[in-house]
Predict the 3D structure of the following.
Amino acid sequence: MMAFLDVMACGLGAAILLFLIVKHHTGTAVEPDAGERAAAGEETLAALRREAGTLAGRIEEAQRRSRERRDGQAPTGGEGREDAGRARLAEIERALRDARARNAALRNEVESIDPDQAGDVIEDVQGGEEEYLLGLRVEGRRIAILLDRSASMTDERLIDVIARKVRSDVEKKQGPKWRRTLRTARWLLHRLPAGSEVAVIAFNDQATVLHGAAWADGRDRVALRGLFGELDRLVPTGATNLEAGLRALGRLSPPATDVYVVTDGLPTRSLSSPGLLSGCSGNARGKVSGACRKALFYASLQASAPPPGRKVHVILLPLEGDPEAAPAYWNWAAQAGGLLMTPARGWP
C-alpha cells in the first residue's frame, strides 16, 4: 500500500511541476502563431489540472481503503494473537529467569576462586598497578635504572620549572612531573623478574648509585623498601648531565645487561665536552640552545654509552621546548635493541 501511495504522490508532484513551468500570457506582442500556442498551453494546463485532481482523489480513496482494511482486521483473529502474545511473553520470562539463575551460579563460582597472588615482592599503593598495553617489559639479568633528577623533572612547562627552582626542597619534590617520575621508577621496580638484580642511578649534575652503589636482589623485600625510601628522599634540582649517569653505569660491576632511562629531554651538561658547551650556549644568560643539547647528547653517547649487546629502553616524559629529544632518544634505543616510550598522561 505504501508503494502505491508513493506512486500517486509522485504523479501529483509531476503534475504540479508541469503547471509551474508552463508559459502563461506574456503581456507583449507575439508572433502570428503565438495565439495558437497560448491556446494549446491553456488546454494542456486544464488537462493537467484535471489529472492532478484525479490523482488526489485516488490517493484519498487509497488512504480511506487502507484505514478501513486496518480497522476491519483489528477484531479478526485478535483473541488468537493475544493468546499467542501471552504465551510468547511467558516464554521470554522463563528464559530470563533461567539466565538470571545461570548468572548467579557463575558469580558464586567466580567469587569462590582464590585470585592469583600478584608477582610483586612488596605491596605499595604508589606502584602504578594499572596494566597498559605498552610493549615495554622489565626484563634482564642485571637491570639498571637511570633516573633523571634534574630541575626540569618537576614540571612540564618551562615557566613552572623556573618558578619551582627557587622554592624549597619540599616544594620541588611535590612537582607533578617529579611525583610521576617516582611512580615510573616504582613501576619498574615492581616488575623486576625473578632472579634479577637491580641498580638505580640518579643523575643531575652528578650521578649517585643508590643502595650503597651496589646491585640489589630484585626479589629482596628489604632491599626494595630501602630503594623506595632513597627515591623519596631525592630532590629534583640542577642540570641534566646524561654523561655522568652513563659513567656511573659503566662503573657497575658486573656490568648491566639491560638499561632503563627515565628522563624528559636532552642533556644540558657534559663531562667530556666542556668546550662544546661553552661554544654553543644560546645567550649570555647561560641557556643552552636546542642544537647544543643535541650535540651534547651525541657527545655523551660517544664518550660513555653502554657497549653493544646492552639493551637500552627510554621512558621520555614531556617537556616544553625540546622537540629534538624524542627522535634522538628513539635513535639510541633502536640502535641498542630497546624501545622508546612516551607514556600517556595518566601513566603510571
User: Anything to note?
Assistant: Residues 197 and 337 are 20 Å apart (CA to CA). The longest strand covers residues 142-148. The domain at 142-341 is CATH 3.40.50.410 (Rossmann fold). Strands lie at 142-148, 197-203, 207-209, 216-217, 258-263, 311-316, 340-341.
